[in-house]
Design a protein that fits this description.
single chain, alpha+beta, nine-stranded mixed β-sheet, isomerase, PsdUridine_synth_cat_dom_sf, coiled coil, RNA pseudouridine synthase, RluA_PseudoU_synthase
């Protein structure tokens, strides 16, 4: 967009005033070029031009926020409650999706789920931003791609950071051209592998190998049989012949042995010669084939590295970084599949490119859940960790971002230390009522826990103390052993599944067409890309089994109270079994990982029964759920 010298000078002056007052430091370019990889340099971005008619920016009516207190800092992206202004933007986007899904996005069925497509739901996101003129608006984006849509900007959504269908003007890199070269190699490899002459020669070589194996085996078998005969004959002749004649006889046997050894060597030599001849004929194809495969591997690795390099992520200071250095310090040292294509990086990238100041973000799921994960239609979710955390760590540098609220929760719990409610205690064991939001054992950022309290209160206690654990957000009965022997005996009961446990949970919904008593069997595994979430995994997951029964229904509040009787004790087992569509398909109230936030997670361990480790008496403890 062209600008007059006066207008440009004014904009530059305004921008410099912003920098000097340290209100915020952000950069811009006048227009996005046709290639996503053409990320502007800091010098170009300092010009501070803003297109107030940005087609990707939706203006928020002033009456929507003039009386709303905007967040003073940007929310921690991996654990946050969306701000009301961001929720308003999400509602607008939801309405747009409904229309698009009916009129133009007809190739993508958001509510179709099968083993083939693994669910067609999609994560959408909005980013509320402030423009240079002080007005508020929002950007919108979606993770990955939508079937049939090649340019998301056509519908007002932020573009991908790198579009493989376009040539990068900055570097001249063309994914399609490089892919075409790979496809040529693949075609030639396929031609060679399926060439009738090669197949004929390979069949002939296999036949030669088989004949050689049979001939050599027969020669060796004959050699062994003759050896056994010579041994028997040697013992027989030792008794019948004179010493002088026996010496002559043994010499004859040695010559016979040498003859059969030569026979084996001759068979080997003949087979080797025939194999070399057959292999030489085949090598006319194989040498070219192996060279092509080597070059294909190098080309494929080079293409992958070049593709990852095209993803250039900005931050508010105008610094850019590609995927490889961003993920260099992660455990895998390489970005996982899909990194850079999530909604959050797209939103922030567009904000920085356009010179907007990020205010608040929100992401929500639209459509059916993937088969193995837990996603609920229209529920809000934080940015993922596996793909987004390293990227956002770079992109949010220079911004005022709140600390991880989970770390702050730990500090709050520790600053408000309270004594644990003791349900039972004797010389060997004790049972306590763990409050919600207290760790069972010390965590990475929080030392204060049930374990540290017990350790401090009972310094002479030995062993691991805690016999089992409860999630931080779960309240209820927790069993403790004061000595190592008692701990071992109780642990064996848990391992042998003789301990009876019951949890009370309040679910965010009613049972529809579902048995009010039943059994859930869904194996669970850690979702590495969305820690600490767990996912259903029938291949690598550990067995996770839960009995359940409905105990009360609140039609007015649309909630259901249930009892859970877990047979196993996997991480987040009850939470996933409640929320997953192959489980109860109703999240627990207050489940901020698999459902929606509330004042607390409504899950409470209210009952436990076991045998006393010393007296062998049946012990039963219960604490009523506080909800």
């Amino acid at each position: 967009m062209a600008s007059s010298p006066v207008a440009l000078s004014s904009l530059l002056l305004i921008h410099l005033l912003f920098l000097s007052s340290a209100a915020f430091a952000f950069s811009t370019i006048t227009k996005l070029s046709s290639s996503r990889c053409d990320v502007p340099t800091p010098t170009a971005m300092v010009r501070g031009e803003i297109d107030n008619e940005d087609p990707l920016l939706t203006t928020i009516p002033i009456d929507r926020y003039q009386n709303v207190e905007l967040p003073p800092v940007f929310a921690y992206p991996h654990f946050y409650e969306p701000h009301p202004i961001a929720k308003y933007a999400c509602e607008q986007v939801r309405e747009q999706i409904k229309t698009l899904a009916t009129d133009e996005w007809t190739q993508h069925n958001f509510f179709s789920q099968s083993d083939d497509d693994n669910g067609a739901g999609k994560m959408f996101g909005v980013l509320v931003v402030r423009a240079d003129n002080g007005s508020l608006g929002y950007l919108k984006a979606y993770s990955g791609s939508i079937t049939g849509v090649t340019h998301s900007e056509q519908y007002g959504f932020c573009p991908t950071l790198y579009n493989r269908f376009e040539t990068c003007e900055r570097t001249g890199f063309s994914y399609l051209a490089e892919e075409a070269e790979l496809n040529k190699m693949n075609l030639r490899i396929e031609e060679l592998e399926n060439d009738p002459k090669r197949i004929e020669l390979k069949t002939a070589l296999d036949a030669v190998k088989e004949r050689a194996m049979i001939s050599l085996a027969a020669a060796k078998t004959q050699q062994k049989e003759q050896k056994k005969k010579r041994q028997v004959l040697r013992e027989q002749m030792r008794e019948e012949l004179s010493p002088e004649d026996f010496v002559v006889f043994e010499a004859d046997l040695a010559q016979e042995s040498a003859y059969y050894q030569r026979q084996v060597k001759q068979v080997k030599a003949a087979s080797t010669k025939e194999l070399k001849h057959a292999q030489a004929s085949l090598d006319e194809f194989e040498i070219e084939l192996q060279e092509l495969k080597r070059r294909r591997g190098e080309k494929s690795n080079s293409l992958q590295s070049q593709t990852l390099q095209q993803y250039q992520f900005l931050n508010i200071n105008g610094q850019r970084k590609s995927l490889l250095p961003i993920f260099a310090d992660t455990p895998l040292q390489r970005p996982p599949p899909g990194a850079g294509d999530c909604a959050a990086p797209k939103l922030l990238q567009q904000a920085f490119v356009s010179g907007f100041k990020p205010i608040a973000m929100a992401e929500f799921w639209y459509g059916d859940s993937p088969l193995l994960e837990v996603r609920k239609h229209n529920f809000y979710y934080p940015a993922c960790r596996g793909r987004c955390e390293p990227i956002l760590r770079h992109m949010l540098q220079g911004m005022n971002v709140e600390d991880n609220p989970l770390d702050l929760v730990g500090e709050e719990v520790e600053s408000n230390k309270t004594s644990l409610e003791i349900v039972f205690e004797d010389e060997f064991i004790m049972a306590v009522n763990k409050p919600n939001e207290m760790l069972s054992t010390p965590g990475r950022h929080q030392e204060y826990s049930v374990y540290t309290i017990i350790k401090e209160s009972y310094p002479s206690a030995t062993g691991p103390l805690l016999v089992h654990r409860l999630d931080m957000s779960t309240s209820g009965v927790l069993l403790i052993a004061k000595d190592k022997d008692s701990h071992q005996i109780l642990q064996e009961q848990f391992i042998n599944r003789t301990v009876k446990k019951r949890y009370t949970a309040l679910l965010e919904g009613l049972f529809d067409n579902r048995e009010e008593k039943g059994f859930i069997d869904l194996p669970l595994a850690l979702d590495y890309l969305n820690r600490p979430m767990q996912k259903v995994d029938y291949n690598e997951g550990k067995a996770a089994q839960t009995f359940y029964e409905v105990v009360d229904t609140d039609l007015e509040k649309n909630r259901t109270k249930v009892h859970f009787y877990p047979r196993t004790g996997r991480t987040h087992q009850l939470r996933v079994h409640a929320a997953h569509e192959q489980g109860l398909n109703i999240p627990i109230v207050g489940d901020d990982i698999y459902g929606q936030r509330d004042e607390r997670l409504h899950l409470h361990a209210d009952f436990i029964e076991f045998l006393h480790p010393v007296t062998n008496k049946t012990m039963t403890f219960s604490v009523k759920a506080p909800f």
